User: What shape does this take?
Amino acid sequence: QKEVEQDPGPLSVPEGAIVSLNCTYSNSAFQYFMWYRQYSRKGPELLMYTYSSGNKEDGRFTAQVDKSSKYISLFIRDSQPSDSATYLCAMSLDNYGQNFVFGPGTRLSVLP
Amino acid sequence: DVKVTQSSRYLVKRTGEKVFLECVQDMDHENMFWYRQDPGLGLRLIYFSYDVKMKEKGDIPEGYSVSREKKERFSLILESASTNQTSMYLCASSAFRGTRINEQYFGPGTRLTVT
Assistant: This one.
């Protein structure tokens, strides 16, 4: 079993739809949970992060962590064609980059 | 604007060649990382460095070495390239103590093909 699992997609939605992206993980000790966005031919960029459980909202984006289920989600409201990218979840035991574990990414296409 | 640059976007090398991938960051970051990204596998850490001349193995260091002679520059070396090293290579940097989680800033990647 992989440490972090993520549906690779591709996921295609119409503009304006609510998008739900998810990751499951096996290591219950993870404390930091991140979402990176990677546009085609670019490196990933940090979108959001949360520490431990709970929700975090930033504009159209909401990150949720359910540690009891070992499940994290990223919701995108009012999705836009500019949201078309690959979304990578990442998690870590601590705040040090060498311990980040990345999911394989979900490719999202938002159709105008 | 923060910037991480990588020397090449695309590279084609032959089996057995020695390959150098260069990464430069202009943010005065202490930490630098080399990952490879393969479909279905996510990013896997090859090596990282937390200071000049310091290096630590990541999850998949076999067949690779690194060099960090200056703070802003981190090189990945494939001593004898093999076809299973065909991949996208991503460099990243982060501050030792960020204002948020040690956010990693990534370069655009180098797509290496070994034939």
